[in-house]
Give the backbone structure.
Amino acid sequence: MPWEIVIGLEIHAQLATQSKIFSGASTAFGAPPNTQACAVDLGLPGVLPVLNEQAVRCAIRFGRAIQAEIAPRSIFARKNYFYPDLPKGYQISQYELPIVGKGQVHILLADGTRKRIGITRAHLEEDAGKSLHEDFHGYTGIDLNRAGTPLLEIVSEPDLRSPEEAVAYARKIHQIVRWIGISDGNMQEGSFRMDANVSVRPQGAETFGTRTEIKNLNSFRFLERALRFEVDRQIDVLERGGQVVQETRLYDVDRDQTRPMRTKEEANDYRYFPDPDLLPLVLEEEQIARATADLPELPDVKAARFRDQYGLSDYDANLLTSSLAMADYFEAVAQACDNPKLAANWLLGEVSAALNKADLDLEQAPISAEQLAGLLQRIEDGTISNKIAKQVFEALWRGEGPTADAIIEAQGLKQITDRDAISALVDAVIAQHPAQVAQYRAGKEKVLGFLVGQVMKASRGKANPQQVNALLREKLKA
Amino acid sequence: MHEKSIAELSAGLRKGAFSSLELTQHFLQRIETLDPRLNSFITRASETALAAAKQADQRIRQGTATALTGIPIAHKDIFCTQGLRTSCGSRMLDNFIAPYDATVVARLKEAGAVILGKTNMDEFAMGSSNETSWYGPVKNPWDETRVPGGSSGGSAAAVAARLCAGATGTDTGGSIRQPAALCGITGLKPTYGRVSRWGMVAFASSLDQAGPMTKTAEDAALLLQVMAGFDPKDSTCADEPVPDYTAFLHQDLRGLRMGLPVEYFQEGLDAGVAASLEQAIAVFRSLGVEIQDISLPNSPLAVPTYYVVAPAECSSNLARFDGVRYGHRCQDPKDLEDLYKRSRAEGFGPEVKRRIMIGTYVLSAGYYDAYYLKAQKLRQRISEDFQRAFEQVDLILGPTAPSTAFPLGEKISDPVAMYLNDIYTIATNLAGLPGISLPIAPVCGLPVGLQLIGNHFQEARLLNAAHQLQRHTDWHQAVPPGFA
């Protein structure tokens, strides 16, 4: 039987605020345990939460970026459960009235089509602390540095139909939160975590199958692998005539499988109710306008503009808008060298490869947009060939000169376009390779490539290849 | 000295009739000799009190004193005090020392008030007799076989017995007003949001409010003046200017309209208490107050509504007492669940457990709509009753409690009978309104309280009416015979 996969994601993005969502303690990552937890974070008696305005601003920006309704009035609620790293015995979250309502994003599918993915809601909440089970000899250590860190929980509709779509959607959200500056999206540090709800149903069925939830996935690769495993597992269970149990599962990275964490019966009754310590969050139009005034051009809009304005393919435009830094870099290079396609090719080719190799982000690239544009201009005006350009690029990367021009000059890489100079090189090569010349003249045209190569070698790559080609043909004809 | 009001003591300090050190020593001495009979203090702070008194004397000499500088007061043991134990009347917090002062404590300290110690209370402010305290019941100074009321029973008894010049209390359903009535003192519960809740151990966050407990309305005005005002650390604290309460005290009452809710004068009200109220009403009439009957038709719903809302909030507020970070932890827990269960089973008393269980129940899936949501709707209706009433009258007058102080042990095993003690005080908490209890003519030698209720932020008007009554009567000056 053909099965249809149904996936919905809940993504927790840590918001890039200086202090916690309800206290003044710092949110910086990596401090020694419990040094960034104040009385409020510790849940001492008598302490009270005060909402961080920056967190609200982040949520508003996100709402606008996904074309969602931003609630004029939203409510903070308590989610009650006991856990040692949850100091108050409840988490302050939003339940019935979240700050961000229904919205949407578009993802690009493998076949090049765009698909709309609905977002049910996004709400503000505080993170819990961390339980440390190692190194305490049978005890559990508690680190409350993370307790009270602001999160935006982004809940998608069950619109995703494959693990690939789920990853594309997750990447889209990751792109947006970083793009609008509300989260650093750092997955190693846990700033972007995903829970996946998965079910399968017979193709064409109208009701959903029983779902399982896979908790706490912190990389796109694990998301995809966990979903693949879980989908196969569910289909296998159903095809053997069994039933999927509604439960929460964990993905075991080492074994590449999911396993049960708790079933529905064991699930907590969270006893949500409005937090009486916090007033309803009321947003005025003016406050929303202020929070969104400096929103950058959004990725989809920018990609469309790149396509139209610079004549790029959908694919390239999409890649060039994977981050705001990338898009800005591209646009700076494209405008300075006046050849957007060349700029795109270099950015997605040489630059990306070099960054990957060095394991750097674009922000850390040793070559500025201005420097790259300077290099591309020299390709454009024929000063250097593509091949030499790569050499100059590497020299720039290593910091051997301040500009492409300086390196070309210092290393004598300027392309040889002087007809007489090339002619002399061609004559010498013809003289040195009588056998190949005879072969060519006997009709073996392929040999030309060898001869061109010899000339280029003799010029140390600097001769203009088109000119070499033309001159060789001319002289061999004679 | 101890019989004097704060206003009189303040004047005496400035004149140099006595020093704060002398005054403080005097009160500490009284606590030492008399409190063993009452058990009104959980923790005494003699050393820090004497140091603060010396500082206050210096301030008085330098001319930078406020009306409260050098005045020895006591705090209900629900307010966090930096470096001084805050037990909240519970075994759970028997070992808890807060690293910060509650805003109320900080403001009174800043004004120069001297803290004598922390007063006894019902555990986590849950009770109306002070019998649920881990530290044992407080006795009523008017009759030591009777309860002082609760939950601020220690503060009420200490002020009544003149063991301190004034005290702080908190009121979630009557916990300032009812013990004030039973002990014969003045107790004011301000408007919700008038006084910061920062550093006040939470019982029911949407109802809790701190207020002064004093011998006179004038003293209540002096304390409230310092306690009230916006606090950025409490999101529910109102950013509303604080009027000069003392200046307003002397206003004439002619033309003031007071309403008597018919529902507050029906069966359930002790005949003696009703007769006392009649006397006081006659005094108000003689001062030119216009008295009329009004109706608060949803009054009978106040107690049931309260006993859904308050436990719901408390079940969540008290979840933090889990034995993990501070407070009571059981011996040798065998695992996490054992740690939670035994720490909480040992740390909390029966009344607190009862309310946590009720609260957990009413918030549970499947019961939330029928209880919690319904209660919120009724709360709204109770509020609307008051708003309609305030279209006709300026203040509402009624009894504070249905009877005088009852004997120790009488109601402790009958929760519903205990809860009904707050039948006249609970609605104002649900509506967030200010209320004050004043001593009026006693019945059989036991104090009786009259309650005035005002609209939001009408504390000045309440204190004005209370002060005028006290200017023309001497009920508030009565001292329990054993504590003169």
Summary: The mean pLDDT of chain B is 97.
